[in-house]
Amino acid sequence: MNSSSIISLLTGHMSLKNIAFGALIGNLFLICTGPAAKVVQYEVGDTMVRDVDSTDAHRLRTVDQQYSYRLATAGAIQPSGWIKNQMESDLKHGLIGSFDQISNTVAYDLFVAQNRLNDRKYDDRKEWWSGEHEGYWKDAIIRMAFLTGNQQYIDSARAWVEEIISNTDPSGYIGIYADGDTPHTRYNFTGPNGELWTQSRIMIALAAYYEFTGDNRVLDHLKKAAELTMNRYRNKNPFATGTDGGTGHGVGYFEILEWLYRTTGDLAYAKFAKKLYGDLDRADTNIEDLAPKRLGTKNRYFADHGAHVAEGFFIPFWLQAQYPSSGYDQYAANAMYKLNYATTPSGVMRADENVRKRKGTANESYEYCGVTELVNPFNIMIGLSGDMRLADRTERAVFNAAQGARFADLSAVSYLTEDNRIGIDPKKKLGRHTYDSNHYAASCCALNSGRLMPYYVQGMWMDHTDRDGVAAVMFGPSSYSTMIRESSVTIEEQTAYPFEDNIDFVFTVERPTSFTFTIRKPFGADIAAISGVEDARIEAADRTISFTKTWKTGDSVGVRFDFDIEQTADVDFTGDRQYFINRGPLLYALPFPFTKRKLKEHQASGFYQWDVTCTDRKGWDYQLPENASFEFLASKEMAGAPFPFDRPVLQIRTKLRDSDGKDVEVILVPMGNTVLRRVTFPRTP
């Protein structure tokens, strides 16, 4: 259905201004946007674009000039329904709430003790390892505690933050390393360097705490800590001393630089980000996929560690917004081209640690860290460009890959997962493929499982940068509170999305206020009906519809999406085609029965590594007939179920063909409801 036919479903005054679009036209890729967004042009080429020297610093633009939408502050969006239930369960029963009992690596209070040296191993791990773990864990706990109102963990969060800022020395340093002027102390590295990485992990947690509480002391400490690091690395390359993972993970520091710039408007953070990106390009690291020397050409696919790519994916997009017409647009376009090549049907980048220049298919492995670490970069990129296709991708990854890589109660996650999965070898890649509460290879994926939904929540709503409206970007049960024209506005999103097609947006407004309310049109869906906008001015774009009127308390907008059941080809690097089935953001899979057996317990915590074994492989070789028909089944009894990923509330009935050529009726369920499954099927006449 095109924009005009959507509009024909509506009544009232309409204006079709500012219709943007997305298409590949020659070598120009146009990002589709909503009415408040800018059209960003990325030129796709094969040659290196020059870096811009410091004389171009005057070309920096203000925050509002750079962003199409303003990201919401933590706490302005409150989850409800199944999203809140899942986070509450994760805290109370899952591995995140108990991780200090599962592993010691989050319990050393390194950002208080500041006693690591970078030439030593601790717990037989690199010195930065537990700093990473502690940052991940506290970030997850802080966000989930405030989003769910869990007072026990809110108290823990406050205690942690007070300890960190009260033990900060006069220099303002927030990090894990010991002070000193000798090698191996902070900022004095001759080998592995986890300085930027570990700082970024705890600083992004502190940033969330500041947004939840408004405690300006925390913001002051963050600014002072960043100023110290920027000064110490003003004339030094932090990527030049080591080729270990910690050094490369330093790309995570761009995340706190972007947050500080967006929060304070101080250009110093943006200028330092440009300097740091040049450092990455000049360094000889083992993680170079995001450096201009790799992004200057699109025909060299991502090869290195996938989590690093995810952590810093937004960097060239942000620099392009800061320095328009500088050449960063080519890096951004080529980064997206490479990510698209590596993306699996469930919406994530394939990476069994490294991407290995492989095409993303349903049979390729992906890392849980790579799922979580791409959510916030995409949030930032949506804010920059208004490109709502990134929201489509986030929904697909969060609702399918991420949910399908965890036990429903989050007692264990799969470090490495595939869309198509029939067996799990506990000995493969140090147990990374198993469901575990703390993989021996590394704790990062288990800890990142607790950060996933809070970051999804933070990207659900955004303000128009002209502060004249709000946008519902990603969907799910929630509410959003903001200020528009000095009037407080709260919009409650009443829905069980993606487990139902209806959304009711209910408005509470301090006083009648005129503003624009924008909603995303997901996954190319038709909109079957919209109510409550008869007196609104309506503006339609390819991916958004906006309604402008004077809103008052009690107003509501009802939206019903009309999703088709779609078959999409998954083509591997040999050209072999299989097909997956989706309806809206959800992929549907043929589930297989399994048994679980405990392999080991972690520190008498009651959390385990599991051996998962398929008990019946019947159907693994089924094929999809070309003339297959599908029947969508939604359980009325389980509509609005509190934990819809525990037990399927949606199904698709169809017939697949067995090896004898007989049609067999099967029930497909959302991928997120499965552990062992088949997502793609070869097609047969």
TrEMBL record:
One Pfam family from the record: Beta-AFase-like_GH127_cat
Domain Non-reducing end beta-L-arabinofuranosidase-like GH127 catalytic: 92-455
GO biological process: carbohydrate metabolic process
Residues annotated as domain Non-reducing end beta-L-arabinofuranosidase-like GH127 middle: 470-562
InterPro entries: 6-hairpin_glycosidase_sf (IPR008928), Beta-AFase-like (IPR049174), Beta-AFase-like_GH127_cat (IPR012878), Beta-AFase-like_GH127_middle (IPR049046)
Gene3D superfamilies: 1.50.10.20
Full protein name: Non-reducing end beta-L-arabinofuranosidase
Organism of derivation: Echinicola soli
Record lineage: Bacteria, Pseudomonadati, Bacteroidota, Cytophagia, Cytophagales
